[in-house]
Amino acid sequence: MNILILHRIPYPKIEYHRGIDHERHDVTYFGTGAALATLPADLRCTRVERPGEATASDEASAWLAAEPRTFDRIISMSEYELLDAARLRERYGVEGAGVAQVRLARDKVLMKSAVRTAGLRVPRFLPLTELLAGPERADWSGPTVLKPHSGASSVDVVVFDGPAETYEAITARRSGVTELDEAGRVGDFEVEEFVTGPIRHFDGLVERGRVLALGASEYLGTCLDYARGEPMGSYQIELTDETRDWVARALDAVRVHDGCFHLEAIVDGEELVFLEVGNRVGGADVAATFELATGIHLPSWELRILLGEQVGDLLPAPPDPTDRSWYGWFVHPGHHLSGHVFEGLDGAEAFRTAPEAVTWQELAVGAPMPDHITYGAHETALAGIARTASPDATREWMARLFASLRVRTSRPSPTTEPAVAAAARA
Question: What is the spatial distance between Cα 358 and Cα 252, in angstroms, rounded to a whole number?
């Protein structure tokens, strides 16, 4: 089989060789030089570098026009290039999900509309273009969230006091979002009521509409606070049959029928409120903690499903619920300190070598703090995984860690600034 992979996520996060037999299949990795540099040197594959100046689909089309060849599968594991892969599949008649199906799990307005139609609760929402016809169009009052239709990591997400305040900020071009205030891209945004409550994420694997594996976790902190510079993480929790059914209904509504999923919901009292979903592996250490708890490496099983293999009866058996560990992942950001260099962590001594710490990855002293929001180890000030005997114990350990940590940074001297800049580009 000839396989084209739009390669964006660093190879170690996916470990493609665990899901694709590179001796049996001819695999082409299409990505920027930085992305291709993460491939193992001895991996049997074809590497094609793209400029990275246009979309992956446009650059792949230009490459294929100059050097025609055919593929049996076109795959992306990155949320940011799922639509690119779908466009290429449609353009070249390759099997797999098309643009309309992929967009349903990428566009937050479309997905909430579909989930609401399926009878599940969602936050009340409007495309921003409708709110701009008048704030009275919103059928809620109180805190209002402005967010991109297809964003991630809470980039360009702002919370206002209400629909009227949102309307005023947008029309006055003082929302704080460059894409709106300077570019006026109102068609790319939506607004929704701010529903309060714990936020949970559900991760797993689905094949032909059947959920094969499912895990539940609850966030400690929020993505929005992380974007503002606060640490966050999540810890695994128990699943109920009612929750399993709710997840299956939500996935069916947004036509996530094959591969991995990362679904988020708010707990309002006893009710789950759908927030958003992605037809991909969750970020940070979601995949790693899932594998530690279940023995299932989500990316490799997703790849096998995307290649047409039937995996439903091949997954590892579930762990004994009476004798299992409970895992959580944690990250401390650094993007809010962009322009500084990392000097170390205060308050970490009691946690760094604690038995609960499965992994612990600090940024190297002297390294530049990231200039963008990231959850990736080796980029954030700290990333790691914790393990305890219960969900509550995991949560409490991470909460104590967050309360104790302080990040030390310094400004680079004029003589070190060029080196810091070069390291940031690497």
Answer: 35
Q: Which of 104, 134, 168 is the last residue of a domain?
A: 104
Q: Is residue 314 part of a domain?
A: no
189 and 203 share one domain: no
C-alpha pair distances (Å), 166 with each of 52, 137, 181: 35, 12, 13
Closest CA to 361 of 375, 350, 347, 372: 375
Domain that holds residue 138: 124-193
CA separation for the pair 185, 166 (Å, rounded)? 15
CA angle at 49 for the pair 44 and 372, rounded to the nearest 5°: 110
User: How many separate domains does the chain show?
Assistant: 4
Residue 101: CA atoms inside 13 Å, Cβ hemisphere, count?
Answer: 15
Write out the chain's pLDDT in tens, 426 residues. 999 999 999 999 999 999 999 999 999 999 999 999 999 999 999 999 999 999 999 999 999 999 999 999 999 999 999 999 999 999 999 999 999 999 999 999 999 999 999 999 999 999 999 999 999 999 999 999 999 998 776 788 999 999 999 999 999 999 999 999 999 999 999 999 999 999 999 999 999 999 999 999 999 999 889 989 999 999 999 999 999 999 999 999 999 999 999 999 999 998 999 999 999 999 899 999 999 999 999 999 999 999 999 998 899 988 887 889 999 999 999 999 999 999 999 999 999 999 999 999 999 999 999 999 888 888 899 999 999 999 999 999 999 999 999 999 999 876 555 544 444 444
Calpha distance 390→397 (Å, rounded): 11
Q: Is the dihedral of CA 179, 185, 187, 192 positive or negative?
A: positive
Secondary structure of 350-410 in HEC code, one letter for each residue: HHHCCCCEEEEEECCCCCECCCCCCCCCCCCCEEEEEEECCHHHHHHHHHHHHHHCEEEEE
Q: Is 226 helix (H, G, I), strand (E, B) or coil?
A: helix
